[in-house]
């Protein structure tokens, strides 16, 4: 008989609680320091309770012209949302095609996609990609950090595997017998079945794009940054202002918390469904 989650041993529960504390404490401390002063940041032992300087720190953060923090937040929201929608849409279409449609070269194409996952294309292709952006006149513009990430090999592979498990072949064939077109099958059968997996992929892509630093640092200008390059500029402008760094970092992770709260049920459901099917 399978053990239930609450049948875990005491050692297992203690280990899980310890792991939770170790994972959550850095985030908690970051928000605590966002409410403190620089004098508090160098105290020993460090303060563990909130202070009363959050509003002041946020005002100083927004007033820092070198960082353009508000612009960075808006740009990151635009870039991350656009890339996420594109990756999820293209990945589900490609996953449906690879998993349920038969066409010449499908296995070869899927193999090539797997190869792109094994090679660090972003690091290896920085120079030619930057030259392309210069040729197009896109340096310093958001197109340069959106276009290279509109398609994701991992997303295609993930949705191919998910589609093969979540959508039975008999259901697709029955829809074809009833006269449904390929796009009709995709809209009415595939998409509803893939929603948990789409939610998981959307969260992963949104987090990856939101936290992207190297390529935006190369191709964007300080006047038109994303949030991660804004924090880097904040660090350069205020090398020892730890509270400003903590405040900026705390503000940058809030959208990720909002996304998880809004889609948490679908994300957990998708992970659990994948685990059960596996």
TrEMBL record:
GO terms for cellular component: plasma membrane. Keywords: Cell membrane, Membrane, Transmembrane, Transmembrane helix, Transport. It is found in: Cell membrane. GO terms for biological process: transmembrane transport. The chain crosses the membrane at residues 12-31, 77-99, 108-130, 142-160, 193-210, 242-263. It is a multi-pass membrane protein. Residues 73-263 form the ABC transmembrane type-1 domain. The keyword Cell membrane applies. Its main location: membrane. The keyword Cytoplasm does not apply. It comes from the Bacteria. Belongs to the binding-protein-dependent transport system permease family. This is Cellobiose transport system permease protein.
